[in-house]
Amino acid sequence: MSRKSAATAQKSRTGAKTFVIDTNVLIHRPDAILSFKDNEVVVPMWVLEELDRLKTFSDERGRNARQAIRFLDDAGRHGNLADGVRIENGSVLKVVSTQPDKIPNDFLQDKSDNKIILAAWQIQQDGGQVFFVSKDINARVKATALGIKAVDYEKQKVDITKLYAGFTAVDVRTESYDELAATGVLEWPDELPPNHYLLLRDKEHEDELIGRYERDNGVIRYVDHKMQSVAGIRPLNDEQLIALDLLLNPAVQLVTLVGKAGTGKTLLAIAAGLNQTMEDILDKRVLVSRPVVPMGKDIGYLPGAKDEKLSHWMRPLFDNLELITSVYHKQNIKQPEQILSNNIIELEALSYIRGRSLPSPFIIIDEAQNLSPHEVKTIVSRAGTDAKVVLTGDPFQIDSPYLDANSNGLTYLVEAFKGQPIFGHILMTRSERSVLADIAAELL
């Protein structure tokens, strides 16, 4: 029996599958190879070529490319990657340089993506049970057109349709409603995630009561719907009230505000941070950042120093600051520029956060849906002992080419931290920006 036929026979006996990994999977998660336990994992040579091209980049792609290359180099020290090396999860890792004997009609080899797909196709022609793994939808379509089973990298994905909301509306007896209204506390028989909110309603009252669940003592604690303004901003609906309650709660160190445009996510986060800083509750500045991912075609090089470059990307934050300073005057500060010049708020590019230990007690990451799970981990792990980290974003407005509503770092973080006592979350659906903005968010 030939070596090729022997290998094919062995696969058929063991039922092992062959996963051919595209470059973008390793850029998304450098150790993705470890996700395919007890199977064969193949990295085409053209993937190494693309990693080699990306390794000099100073952004997250470059860092992940270098890490993936180091992973392959370490595996190669334990055997010949051409023949296959057994790695820690029980899989066999191979690096192949496959040249198909026969090219499918109309399939050009002028692109690295096509050559990677052809490597998977050739392995399938040799009798393997092949799965082409890629985060590039078009590459998956091409592979499927050649008869290859193509899949997305599912690790760290969540079902956006089942995303944790952070609150539940429930019907209660009038006696329970009155007890919460009178005493501010109500024993709750069911166990809920910490900092979960209940919107309690009964047949005799028109208004709902909002309560925050405290797991330690199993009670619902009343949240005053007549909350005073925070930096001049008042909540306009129950969702915004819940968001502010989380933002102002010192016991909640990580907050995620997820929702469509116009729900007030960024405005409330900045107002809460600014209020606590200006009122001397916090003794240091607020740090605000957002991913530098353009919507549409990039406008290219931006002149000026760091602050001048950031001013273009941070314009939405300035808009919120202008609204806040128009109604909230503290320490004679009436313009956003005064807040920045006094170092009350610091704007920072996410590119410079890696490696830092962030002492600022209030950290806001806006547009976090454009971050990968690995990038979110990098940011949250930078937080200091007394820091509060707030991430805001809309999973349905993603500009990163390899992320979607199910695989971005923001939604992954929500599901990963649900149930942690230091975490709070609210899914915001009610737009307060304008009737036009609300209709646009629904219809477009």
Write the layout of secondary structure elements.
Elements: H1 3-14, E1 18-21, H2 23-28, E2 40-44, H3 45-54, H4 60-76, E3 85-86, E4 92-96, H5 112-125, E5 130-133, H6 137-145, E6 149-151, E7 167-171, H7 174-183, E8 185-187, E9 197-201, E10 209-214, E11 219-223, H8 238-248, E12 254-259, H9 265-278, E13 286-289, H10 306-313, H11 315-327, H12 336-341, E14 345-347, E15 362-365, H13 373-380, E16 388-393, H14 409-417, E17 423-428, H15 435-443
Parallel strand pairs: 1-2, 1-5, 2-4, 5-6, 7-9, 12-16, 12-17, 13-14, 13-15, 15-16
Antiparallel strand pairs: 3-4, 8-11, 9-10, 10-11
Helix pairs in contact: 3-4, 3-5, 8-9, 9-11, 13-14
Structure report:
The chain has 444 residues and is an alpha/beta fold. It folds into 2 domains: 141 residues, 3-Layer(aba) Sandwich (Rossmann fold); 212 residues, Rossmann fold (3-Layer(aba) Sandwich), CATH 3.40.50. 35% of the residues lie in helices and 17% in strands. The protein is built from 15 helices and 17 strands. A 6-stranded mixed beta sheet has the order 3-4-2-1-5-6. α3 crosses α4 and α8 runs parallel beside α9. The radius of gyration is 26 Å and the shape is elongated. The termini are far apart. The relative contact order is 0.11. The N terminus is likely disordered.
